[in-house]
Amino acid sequence: MNRSNTIELVDFLKGFSIFTIVVFHVLKTLPMSPLMTKFIFLGGTGIHAFMLISGFGLYLSWIRRPMTYLEFLKKRFVKIYVPYIFVVTLIAIVSLIIPIYKSSWYYYLGHVLLYKTFDESIVGSFGDHFWFLSTIFQFYFIFPVLVKLKEKLSTTKFMAAGMAVSFAWILLVLVLGKEYMRTWNSFFFQYMWEFMLGMVLAAFYVEKRRVLPAKNVYILLLGLSALVVHGFLAIQLGGLGRMVNDIPALMGYTFFAVFIYRLKKFLVNRFFLFTATISFSLYLMHVVVLKLVAYYSLQWGFDVGYWSCPSILCLLMVSPIILIWDHLFYKVRWMRGKSGIFTNHMKAGYPLFASKVNLIEIFVKHHPQRSTEEIIIVLTISFIGK
């Protein structure tokens, strides 16, 4: 893996993963053949890449800036938990007015106090996709322990420990017959080896080790082969297959994404890199938008199909909602100079955008005491002004 583009590749994987996950959730709402219904689950395989990326990003940040356990949890609380609970609160309030979800204090507090991950009756409350955040929070609580383990064990023993935990858990779930229950098949033990592999890759990145074949054709062949195995296990073995096919799922999906990235198609790479900058916002909001579109399509008598109004409305509704959310809660970070991914890519292709961003950067530089609200106002005015 070329060190100069490794981090960009990680961002590409993040954007590619969230895009395929959103497409998967959109397609699930549309009528299609039984074969296509099974095929679209490949899009949901992106969640394995997210586990890998999470381990990579957290450990790379830890290497660069070690922190205490409380500092780590505080940082995760501000960056992940607060926006998550804000969106859940919004959905809970909307559900009291528009019956898209069952809403109760027990459901709501299950998110706030994080106990929904242990209760199958509410694990999908306010959105089935929120299971992923429950799993990630579990990793946050044990992450410092994994760091200590990584420091004490060799890479081989570290990964062997992760694989042992994951496969022991899978065996337990299968023996108990719980493979179709989200609280069991998505518990963090299931994904332990993927998260720990991300940590190993972060260490390799720092040590400048090559971890991918140089030729792109090999990446494609490995990816397609793994996806074939993944599909066979999932389709032929049902719940059992889905429990044991995580290795081919992660390999096939990730290698295929890397193959696309290495094609170096400028617009394609730019699209997924931009998607990465709004990935968390998009993940939080896209399902409730789909729910609202489905609800009103039924109310207005639309036929939900491939070219129906709900599908078009979904595309139109998601973009502005996600962009507004993203600006309010995240873009102040890159305006303060902490991240340049979004601005660097947009400046390169859009001179008008570059002039607007430069104006914001100058404002923040010379007025560091300004509040977030004031910065957002300046951002809005600068982008709508001439």
Quick take:
The protein has 386 residues and is mainly alpha-helical. It is 76% helix and 0% strand. The longest helix is centred in the N-terminal third of the chain and has 29 residues.
Secondary structure blueprint with pairings:
Elements: H1 6-28, H2 34-39, H3 41-44, H4 46-64, H5 69-97, H6 105-112, H7 131-152, H8 155-176, H9 182-185, H10 192-206, H11 216-244, H12 246-262, H13 266-277, H14 279-299, H15 309-329, H16 331-335, H17 341-349, H18 351-366, H19 372-384
Helix pairs in contact: 1-4, 1-12, 1-13, 1-14, 4-10, 4-12, 5-7, 5-14, 8-10, 11-12, 13-17, 14-15, 17-18, 18-19
Q: Indicate the mean pLDDT.
A: 79
Percent of residues in helices: over 70%
Main sheet overview: none
Strand content: under 5%
Query: Helical segment tally?
Result: 19
Strand tally is 0
Straight-line N-to-C gap: 44 Å
Unreliably modeled segments? 1-6, 327-354
**H/E element sequence:** HHHHHHHHHHHHHHHHHHH
Radius of gyration: 21 Å
Helix/sheet category: mainly alpha
Shape: globular
Task: Characterize the structure shown.
The chain has helices at 6-28, 34-39, 41-44, 46-64, 69-97, 105-112, 131-152, 155-176, 182-185, 192-206, 216-244, 246-262, 266-277, 279-299, 309-329, 331-335, 341-349, 351-366, 372-384. The chain is built from 19 helices and no strands. With 386 residues, it is mainly α.
Kindly list the characteristics that best describe this protein:
globular; single chain; 76% helix; 386 residues
